[in-house]
Design brief:
A hairpin with a 7-residue loop joins strand 8 and strand 9. The mean pLDDT is about 85. Helix content is about 25%, strand content about 35%. The chain folds into two domains: about 5-100, 2-Layer Sandwich (Beta-Lactamase); about 130-205, no CATH class. By secondary structure, it is of the alpha+beta class. It has helices spanning about 5-15, 40-60, 105-120, 200, and strands at about 20-25, 30-35, 70-75, 75-85, 90-95, 130-135, 140-145, 155-160, 170-175, 180-185, 190-195. The chain contains four helices and eleven strands; from the N terminus they run H-E-E-H-E-E-E-H-E-E-E-E-E-E-H.
Length: about 210
């Protein structure tokens, strides 16, 4: 069966999170809407349902306020569950010894992509990061940014560096041919993120294929 748009978004998240091997989009009732990863479908659906129950129980408890996300670390595997709009949640399964120090950009990009696909408003408090592919020159500076299959790659010109990033990351301020400006960040593992939506930043991208 051909992967759905949701599955492709989830698959991209797994590729961007060290130690992640499966994830699922689950609704308020614990039903898995879609999933991705090399895992028994039954296992990921059961895990997603249980994590949804935990989120529901924490919300009903009330003393913590609205639960935004939770992490459960176990001896054999670990789980991350994050609230999404309309009662949905994102559940990620991680291998043993997987760390939780990965940048929040991967989650922000995934949640924005899911919201766009489902027609939700972006999650409250979500950072403005979008997953992109970047072609670099010999000095490792971006020259071409690709936001995915629905948009054409955009040439960019770097005019500054971003300072104060964590070790292993590099950041650049860049400008498109139409004058739009954006920040590009390369995280450890060579995953890239932009702080602007290329289709909104460069009008020529709308309707591209």
């Amino acid at each position: 069966m051909e992967a759905t748009s949701f599955a492709r978004i989830l698959h991209d998240l797994i590729a961007r999170l060290p130690g992640a091997y499966a994830c699922a989009l689950v609704d308020l009732g614990g039903e898995t809407v879609d999933y991705a990863g090399v895992v028994n479908p039954f296992d990921v659906k059961v895990a997603a349902a249980h994590m949804r129950i935990i989120l529901n129980d924490l919300d009903e408890y009330g003393a913590l306020g609205k639960t935004r996300w939770i992490v459960l670390r176990g001896e054999k595997r670990s789980f991350v569950a994050r609230q999404l709009p309309d009662g949905y949640a994102l559940v990620v399964m991680l291998r043993r010894r997987a760390g939780f120090t990965a940048s929040a950009r991967a989650y922000a990009a995934c949640e924005r992509a899911l919201a766009a696909e489902a027609g939700w408003s972006p999650p409250n408090g979500s950072s403005s990061w979008f997953a992109v592919e970047v072609e670099v020159d010999g000095r490792g500076r971006p020259v071409l940014v690709d936001a995915g299959p629905t948009a054409s790659a955009v040439p960019v010109e770097v005019f500054g560096a971003v300072v104060g990033l964590p070790r292993g990351e590099r950041g650049f301020r860049a400008r498109t041919a139409t004058g739009g400006e954006l920040t590009l960040v390369r995280e450890a593992g060579n995953t890239w993120y932009a702080d602007e939506d290329l289709e909104a930043l460069d009008p020529r991208q709308k309707g591209s294929s």
